[in-house]
Amino acid sequence: MSTNSQQPEVHHPVIHRDDTAKKLGMWLFLFTELILFGGLFLVYSIYRYLNPEDFSNGSHHLDVGIGALNTMILITSSLTVALSITAIQKNKPKLAIGLIVFTIFCALLFMVNKYFEWGHKIHYDLYPGTELFKALKPGEGLFYVLYYFMTGLHMLHVVVGAILLGIMANYIRKGMITHDNYVLLENGGLYWHLVDLIWIYLFPLLYLIH
Amino acid sequence: MDEQKHHIVDYLTNIKVWVALAVLTILTVWVSEFNLATLTVAVALSIATIKAILVLSYFMHLKFDSKILIIMVLVTLVIFLSMIIFTFFDYLYRK
Amino acid sequence: MTTTTLPNYLEDKQGKKGLMVWLTTHDHKRIGLMYLAALSVFFIVGVLIGILMRLELLNPGKDIVDPQTYNSLFTLHGVIMIFLFVIPGIPAVFGNIALPLIIGARDVAFPKLNLFSWYLYMFGAMLALGTLLVGDGPPDTGWTFYAPYSVKTGTNVTMAVFAAFILGFSSILTGLNFIVTIHRMRCPGMSWFKMPLFAWALYATSWIQLLATPVVGITLLMIAVERMLGIGLFDPALGGDPVLYQHLFWIYSHPAVYIMILPGMGVISEIIPTFSQRRIFGYKAIAYSSLAIAFIGYFVWGHHMFTSGMSGPARVIFSILTFLVAIPSAIKVFNWLATMYNGSIDMKPPMLYAMGFIFLFLIGGLTGLVNGALAADIHIHDTYFVVGHFHYVMFGGTGFAFFAAMHYWFPKIWGKMYSIKHATRAFWVLFTGFNILYFPMLVVGIMGMPRRYYDYLPQFHLPNEISTVGSWITVLGLVYMIVVLIQGMRKGEKAERNPWHGLTLDWQTDSPPTLENFEEIPTVTEGPYEYK
């Protein structure tokens, strides 16, 4: 696999490309992300168990419409990332770039929605530290704290995911990702699907379970 | 994990999965309008799990990947669920 | 095989200059040595703090520091020793150096990521030590950062917690790297069951790093946000439950105990067959028991919380599960002993440290069962018995395994040999000092002396005096050992390729190896311990 270089001064190990290793590495990273959110899901489930009424009340005050819209946006963006991988496999880089750009557009739309959703609550002083917040029942307070924490951390992942996909689109443009070397795009896609997966659970847990 | 041929999920399959996800999303919102009492959580989480399995199998290609990867995903899930279940051993029996 | 014309990895500068040779390297051996350098410094700082604490405890009442300083001392001793030394310890140093060598690979799977982990580690370490210098004084919560005190105290907890968060990520990335390396980069012919046991131990450890560390990450993040915004997640006044913090913390930190000990067991599993020149007894049992320890280790965290107000059934369940963990640990010990039976045992320093490990780990493990027994733990929880047990496992176990690895791979790393005579003497000083230092803690704990106090009742005076004297002997042993090793590194005789007559692949290449480890990737046909 590797031959001894003639100049002993500078030589680099020749390591062959191993796509399976890269993909496995990405999956392992996704496991840690899953457990990271898992800690929050654990806290959520315990406090929900301890304060069922308050959590139900809190959940009633969230806007199911915005939540459902954001869910649709995310699953659509997940689709377009998946399609972009199919496109690159079929050697259609332009189509792939177009699909990724659309995905990033979805990510922005998601963030705009979230901005209005959070903004609305903050406008009414519904955040930790305010008089209104202190007057809430402890369980309701915990619900909103978890709501902010979980959606906030998720939002951070949306931002990171969108940036990663932007880099991937640029790589396709430069020809660094091609129809026979697309593991990077697959990994970017996997990350984006994880963002979707987390939301698939966040949506019912926060918005729907009254 | 042996080298394997790269399986291409065609456009149509992806779109079908998307349709299923959209329908399930509408379903879960629609169901939440009814008062299912104790079943609310179970129904909502079951629908979410079906959606998650669809995303994992098709969008994330797990269905076409090597078995060892599927085992790893399952082990991760088992450990994650055990963390929750074992913590509940405490809270369920608190006086 | 003829000697290669390529320079070894210590001399091969790849056209770089000065420190950049090290700071920009992607070579697993160099990165391992960079970890070793950093870890040694932090270890010495940790030891110095420990010495100060023992000095304070020499007599009842105030000796040298006031109570608040003492609180910070035991917190820093814990944070430094656990997060900066014991957890990264063997995987980061000897995993990095030896794993690619023993599985016949040129490097780990992601060399750049490996270097990035080191930078993360250094950044986290600087933050942890920075708590000493900036803000309102070093944290005084103990290394566990228990809520609600960690949320209320005015000391520099946020920064310490953030440091632990960063260090956790470094640990996760190392684990990720090793798992992919072991899956993808074993040399031709090396099936899973022809893999050396150290690789098995690292594999099991890596899975714990990967699947447990994020829990503490998110928990510490919650503590940090709690301190900054007062969100009340663990504050009873706002509906939170402090015991939930303990659950979250130990969901990580108990498996983390196995992050600390499993690689140590892996090192011992390499040394014992080599120095007995015998085929290892029960190869598969040792390999599987590593996985079993990793797996069962996830489900026993509650035994740290028997007196925290957990429900009765939960306490019983966690106590029973705790006893299960002892089984795979015991399987390993019995297999090591069976390996030595009828072997031609060579009592060189690595073997001495391995024997020391078995002896001390046995005491640590058995006292662990006393702690794990629900009824007994109610009495000894938060006494010096726990401190004694913990140090027997962590220092006597992991620490001695670390030293064993250091003496074992020393000729491979440096291509030179230390003085066997002096290294042997250093071992005996260290081993004696260790037992004088920690055994009295077990006794005084049973007598009822609580831990984490800077003062104690007069009836505990004698054991504490003995213990403090033991700490001096221990330090003497450590200094002796370090001097011997540094002397060996600088002026030692040239070591052969395979001074211990080992059969694993690391011994079949040059000492020190070249940057690419092997001239040609070896092919393996039989197991790693087929001694004739």
Observed structural traits:
heterotrimer, A: 210 residues, mainly alpha, Four Helix Bundle (Hemerythrin (Met), subunit A), 79% helix, disordered N terminus, C: 532 residues, Cytochrome C Oxidase, Chain A, two-stranded antiparallel sheet, 16 helices
Report on this model:
The complex is a heterotrimer of chains A (210), B (95) and C (532). The N and C termini of chain A lie far apart (61 Å). Chain A has helices at 19-50, 52-60, 64-89, 93-123, 131-135, 138-174, 183-208. In chain A, 46% of the residues are buried. In chain A, 79% of the residues lie in helices and 0% in strands. With 95 residues, chain B is mostly helical. The mean pLDDT of chain B is 89. Chain C is mostly helical. Chain C has a single domain, classed as Cytochrome c oxidase-like, subunit I domain (Cytochrome C Oxidase, Chain A), CATH 1.20.210.10. A two-stranded antiparallel ribbon of chain C has the order 1-2. Chains in contact: A-B, A-C, B-C. At the A-C interface, α1 and α6 of A face α7, α8 and α9 of C.
The H-level CATH homologous superfamily of chain C, spelled out, is Cytochrome c oxidase-like, subunit I domain
Content-based structural category of chain C: mainly alpha
Figure out the total of helices of chain C.
16
What sort of overall outline of chain B do the alpha carbons produce when their principal axes are compared?
flat
Helix content of chain B: over 70%
Strand content of chain C: under 5%
How many helical elements of chain B?
Answer: 3
CATH fold type of chain C: Cytochrome C Oxidase, Chain A
